[in-house]
What does this fold into?
Amino acid sequence: MRSETLYLRLPRPQVAFFRFLLVAREGLAMFTSLGADAKGREVLCMRCAPGAGREVRRLLDDVQPDCGTELLAG
It folds into this structure.
């Protein structure tokens, strides 16, 4: 089974908080920054644990009001 890749965007000040939320869910996913877009929002590449894509998408929906996450692709 392979990991799933998701791309998302969020405001730069929220990146540390988002990382904290992922760390609290040990092994669920990790991300790397691809840099900022023209509006200063951070673009992230997330790798989800095999079989965890549905749970990660649920997490993204849950934190969207607080973090302003926007799923780009995946």
Residues 18 and 61 are 12 Å apart (CA to CA).
